[in-house]
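Q: Convert this sequence to structure tokens.
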Amino acid sequence: MPDRPAPQTIHVVVAGVAGRMGGMLARAVIEHDGVTLAGATVRPGHDWAGRDVGEAIGLGRPIGLAVSDDPLPLFAGAQAVLDFTSPEAAVAHAELAAQARLTHVIGVTGFEAAHLARLRACARHAVIVRAGNMSLGVNLLTAMTRRVAAALGTEWDVEIVETHHRWKADAPSGTALMLGEAAAQGRGATLAELAVRGRDGITGPRPEGAIGFASLRGGDVVGEHAVTFAGMGERVTLGHVATDRMIFARGAVQAALWGQGRRPGEYDMLDVLGLNEAG
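A:
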């Protein structure tokens, strides 16, 4: 089935507009050419329901669009949904988006195997763009990590260190796991085979080829990631520092535009940016 032609202007719904990223997603849509904010949702019973979106997110002016606690009618009239909610909510939204044939952009992390299986089923009917991080810089870092891991042998130890704000609920971060997957792919393996997520006590020598993770939490850090390849007598460190969450929102809007007219399936930001094609 050929890709469908993409509309010139798309209507976008922001799911979970009252969340940490929700307001920024709404702002990014309002500010971006080629997209129109068609709706914004909150969970049932939330006190934002019925409020004007502009006033609720702090724009300082109404925009003539009310926050809703019922996503179904909003999804029916849109072409894309931006979703940085929670694993459970994102899966429920994916099932609605599949019915409406929307592009579903998911910036949620912490999915379990059962969640991922349901998302795969939804992707048979709709475009799902899911990434642990939507920023251009992080996805370039992911592509570089894969290439460096492929170029260096398993005698080079891989360690991934991530730092986030004190409120972050999951560890390692979705971005750190994405980087770990890239390193594992570069070595022709899966992350499940190589990951070491924590060390405590007498752990013994480091296994050759292992990919280690360390998670730091504190203050209001937006996000910092470093991938170190440690060899005998030398180290290579690749890194990214985020100072503004709006980079994730802008990346999500870019993904929503990219998804228009695509065949149903599961994609990530490397697809959006053309970096998967670069290997």
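Residues 136-242 form a domain with the Dihydrodipicolinate Reductase; domain 2 fold (CATH 3.30.360.10).
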